[in-house]
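The protein record passed on for reference:
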Amino acid sequence: MTFAVEIMSTTLFNMILHLTSVLFSPIRTALTVWAALSLSTGFAIAQTPVINTNTPTTPASDTLRLTLAQADEQFKAHNLTVLATQLGISENQAYEIQSQLRINPAIYVETMPYNQQTKEVLPFRQSNAQQVVQVQQLIRLAGKRNKQLAIARTSTELATDRFYDLLRTLTYQLHTTFYDLYYARQTLTVYNQEITTLQQTVALYQQQFDKGNVPLKDLTRLKAYLFSLTTERQQLLRRLIDDQADLVVLLNTSPSTAIQPVVAPEAINRFTVNSLTINNLFQLAEQHRFDLKGYRDQAKQEQQNLTLQKAMAVPDLTLQGTYDRNGSYISNYFGVGVGISLPVLNKNQGNIQAAKIRIQSSQQLLSAYNLQVDSDVERAYTKALQTEQLYQTFDQRFNDDFGRLIDGVTTNYKKQNIDVVEFLDFFDSYKSSQLQFAQLQNDRMHSLEEVSFAVGTNPFQN
């Protein structure tokens, strides 16, 4: 990159020195007037772009300035999807409570609806009437209650895994959108500066063309380039609006509020992927990837289900107490009974076999997803290293040098040493360099966020 800049700079100044000895056509006067007007209006594109504090259609009072840390806090506190998913944990905790409850006893009461001898309805008080009362209690054997409780607790762990995995995914979306919007605003500033300058230039050239002082081809070039810039700026505004809308949803703010990301310059270079090792990233992913933990918990729950299904093969015990008035060989009969089903035909064989198959399936899925996680970490780390290498080889003084070069070009243009076509070439080169550098910075931050997304946590703070 530095080598290319040196070649370009050498070629440029040689060209300028060559053109200083050339006398221009009759457009000399118009070019001099245009150059003077450009300088008097403050041709400021040589400076590093500053974030525009407002979107074109939003007043300053509706602008919300946020750092990334502040955006994270508001996201966790107000994002509706996060809050709704978090309630799923409480829901499964309620199911845990339910699984601990014992089976209610059952009561059975029988009496005569009508005594034909005494002609009375519901003869409860007569000594010669019959009433039967039975009380039953089911006793679950083989620890079924504790095994169902274990499954319920694992379900709560799965709900927790889903919550933190959602948090990881939405945090990645928040951070990448945050940087997209930040660098889009910087890029928009470049377009605004260039378009403002070109609009003034086109207006002046139109006046000179009407007087016959400049050729139509030069005016057409200026108008065509201005149209190209305006079109590119419009496309950028569409992306900016999309990013703004995404942040509004993620942060749960008013759609009429313009969100302005704030990034300190030192925050850009605070972290580097070169400080990480791939083995350390694998270990972090093993601990913090909650989607992977979800697969482990699912396999654990399938094993618990097999244990429960084997316990279900053991029949439950029923205890019964009976009171019978005048229905037995003696009056006021009290009896105690025990009941149990005989596991002769149904030993829960099908459910046990299905549980074993589900265990095998869950283990296969866990192994496959473990490989997927390692692949995600490897891919993110490699891409981040490549982006970091490109970023480090980029001479960050390039934009300042290019800015001073533009000043020199403007000065020579004022002296009529270069024509409008050559000036527009430098004009376009400056725009491209600013946009490419902003995109490189954005790509670098995206690659760092992708590493954090792949391992499930911020590895630069561990």
